[in-house]
Amino acid sequence: MKKVLLILCLFATGIMVEAQTVKEEVSKMDAFASKTGVIIKFVDYSLPNLSLSYGIAESKIRKLISSGDTAYFYQISNESKYGTKTASIAYEDLLEVIKALETLKDESVNDAILKPDYIEYKFVTDDGFQIGYYVSGSKTNWFLKLEKYGTGNTIFPKSVNSIEEALSIAKAKIETMLK
User: What is the pTM of this model?
Assistant: First the structure.
């Protein structure tokens, strides 16, 4: 009986230790920029600000060069009372965000017709950037969540057209640098 109890205790302890093991998440930008033993160059290219319902968010392209490799990120930064929050969207994710926005735009029209108490529809990148909208009654509000964790990381662009324009400008800028 004591052996069975001891085995159960060891098994339970193993489960608790496993449950407490947290996988450390590293963004694509952090993975690229945190290489050791190499020289890393950051080059920023300013883009027009993104108009928000209240204020503006800065946007730019950040080019990273490290040991012959180059990566491009579209960055959106917003200063809030909780500090500056920044989304770094890898070029390949930016292309997916642009595709997702088309689907979201189509659905937003249908969802607004329903006049629900609340509907939320969004797209999330691997790094936790979110783009989406919520409908409350007949009003549609678009949002961008810049960082996966924390407070004050959600911004509300003036319109879906301002989001679309910002993404299009970022894509075009990166594509000119790829040539």
Answer: 0.82
Q: What is the CA radius of gyration of the chain?
A: 21
Break the chain into its structural domains and give their ranges: 28-178
pLDDT averaged per 10 residues, the chain (length 179):
46 46 64 77 97 95 94 96 93 98 96 94 96 94 94 94 97 96
- Contact assessment for residue 33 and residue 67, using Cβ atoms and an 8 Å cutoff: no
Q: What is the DSSP letter of 52?
A: B
Token pair for 107: 């659905």
**In CATH terms, is domain 28-178 a member of 2.40.50?**
no
Contacts of range 21-26, beta carbons closer than 8 Å, 24 or more positions apart: 25/148
- In the numeric block, the tokens 């879906």 are attached to 160
